[in-house]
């Protein structure tokens, strides 16, 4: 276990010292994988139920994690932080893998396309959602897969995250009951190579963690190529290295509707924070905690595929390493979470005020040159907040890392507001400015110009008229035996 942590530190040092690191880049179109008709991927999860009933039942049980919780309604500040971006319309807390297709269809962010050429999102938005994605990449090639709008994949991507996302289900090893782990998405394999984690050369433990990096990572869509998914690991996996990469290529996800800052939307850098945390450094993998080995009624040991909270299966997860009682360890983690939430709230407040102050400066006639450094500081502060907020389980994986990231975010937010104060004073704006009431989601949506009722009505129409067409196509093609749940 110690060797696993040491190897990661050596890899990070090698990345930092490698003189060619500045040359690491996203792939060109010519470097993307071509169609491979010899690569057969069976995406229908239900076809594995009879041969692997225990594992299939565990996977099916992720449906029990079915609660839909709106993070925006719990914390309306998010609506301001993501102003002008789809996340300001709807963002729900994570639930079971069983619902990945349902949730991406239902969320307001994907809009209400009327055909395969309309809607706000690109095809890349499907990329983490299930094994139909690697199937299509094999059939179409990467460039063709990533081409066009999200709705193109509506009838093809219909199986939620499952067997073929992590296993080579057509291999001899899999037929013999062995894990046959593999990286099913070419862009993931490329990213692992960049940080010295080439999958085929990795240990069994590293492979068990790497398959989670199919989805639980930070990534961006490379608009300069084919809107393809790229992991920004060219300089390292920590928050500063990824920020430096983004700054150098002048990438931004959107321009904020208030501040006009070129913003970064962090995804969910769970693999990265795990690598840097105590579990990753000691070789304790994602699967050890979220997919433990358990003993069935027949006495045989197997991997539990009900991916969820380790405390739900404490005796087979945490207690393998920790001597504390479940109650004691739960309180330790709860305290970590509270500490992080407390300082994260302070950072959110600072950034929200900075966005409104930037708008006030623009309204007063500030120039782009006057605003340049303040907007850069806003970008960096929110990147650090979002990195911390989007790291699912960061309070458990690496609380020390998350707290340091938030601290540096607070520093950047204070810097942004100090710079804005000078600009506001120069243009005769009395301070403090009047901040609008965003105490509820409804009030925040109104302040930010989001017609939430219209968005919801359009989505309902889409779910009623378009999604049934997708389901009909998938059933007729034999991609699924039953349609994904509606909610």
Automatic annotation (TrEMBL):
Catalytic activity: 6 Fe(III)-[cytochrome c] + NH4(+) + 2 H2O = 6 Fe(II)-[cytochrome c] + nitrite + 8 H(+)
Primary residence: other
One Gene Ontology molecular-function label: nitrite reductase (cytochrome, ammonia-forming) activity
SUPFAM superfamilies: Multiheme cytochromes
Residues that, per the record, bind heme c 4: 286, 289-290, 397
EC number of this enzyme: 1.7.2.2
Chain positions recorded as heme c 3 binding sites: 97, 212, 215-216
Signal peptide start and end residues: none
A Pfam family assignment: Cytochrom_C552
Positions annotated to bind heme c 5: 279, 318, 321-322
Protein name: Cytochrome c-552
Species whose genome carries this gene: Seminibacterium arietis
